[in-house]
Amino acid sequence: MAKITLDNLAHSYLPNPASEEDYALKELNHDWEDGAAYALLGASGCGKSTLLNIISGLLQPSQGRILFDGQDVTHAPTAERNIAQVFQFPVVYDTMTVRDNLAFPLRNRGREESYVAERVQEIARMIGMEDVLNKKARGLTADAKQKISLGRGMVRKDVNALLFDEPLTVIDPHMKWELRTQLKKLHHDFGHTMIYVTHDQTEALTFADKVVVMYDGRVVQIGTPEELFERPEHTFVGYFIGSPGMNVIPAKIDGTRAYIEGSPIDLGCGYDALEGKLEIGVRPEYATLSQDEGLPVTIRRIEDAGRHKIIRAEFFGHDINIIAGEDDPVSADMNRVRFDPAHVNVYANDWRVPGRAA
């Protein structure tokens, strides 16, 4: 297990980067706690895999350092970093049995065969492959092979970190839930530092203690699932987390009120004069249909999602999503929407602005 420090870290795939836009991974300075489980979350191309490969040693950064427990490993080869990495697509030895695939990392380090056998049996039980331990990997399905890759990553107890690069892409949906549960149990039992790359918010929020949200090569927020939901520090976080994501609407901010197309919205805090692109952000969960107060909206459609309804509305060309309970009334004369002031976030140039007591 290790505390991972990213010190002035950045990377460009160009030989002579001239500006910040030339960097796939923009400058990072972060400490990741020893023994914590992190998820790297973001859209494709945002820099997640680049960062993971720098941590693992598969990629040398253009600038900065990476430290494990204070030791500079920036130029250390992967083998010296004592990490285990599981990739998006399965990497297995086809000519070996499942048992020998799982045992390989332990035998490679000279562990006693009695320990190897015990540990392999334990991991096989975790990934549901006890009945195929003596089968060659060559004849197995892609998702079975990926389970072997996961098992091989988890079989060692002494690693500094376990790194997962979208490991459940080829796994069927039911097994995804099972394996995520097993990964969380593994973390709870052994306290490995874990970093899990994904573009799936459900995977990230159910796996990690803290989620690292990346956008355009930059870490825009590190927080618990609750923090990401309640206080998105960047409009991308609000948009990317949640289904549907946060309503982000251009606004004029004046003290304790926001004005959208001239209509006032109460804010839970007060704000000094702000400059730049100003917006408010409100989760659909904190928007409510009303007959007589709030913004006048046009209801476009209502989607029944089982436990709740998603109401798609429009106000002067701005899309507004509202989540209502399954039993909440929705009638033709409910054509206004009001926002809970305590849950209205204010953004300047996409970054959240803390308010002062109103």
UniProtKB/TrEMBL annotation:
InterPro entries: AAA+_ATPase (IPR003593), ABC_transporter-like_ATP-bd (IPR003439), ABC_transpr_FbpC (IPR015853), ABC_transpr_MalK/UgpC-like (IPR047641), Mo/tungstate-bd_C_term_dom (IPR008995), P-loop_NTPase (IPR027417)
SMART domains according to UniProt: AAA
Database matches in Pfam families: ABC_tran
Keywords from the named record: ATP-binding, Cell membrane, Membrane, Nucleotide-binding, Transport
Domain of life: Bacteria
Coiled coil regions in record: none
Family: Belongs to the ABC transporter superfamily.
Protein name (Swiss-Prot/TrEMBL): ABC transporter ATP-binding protein
Organism: Thioclava dalianensis
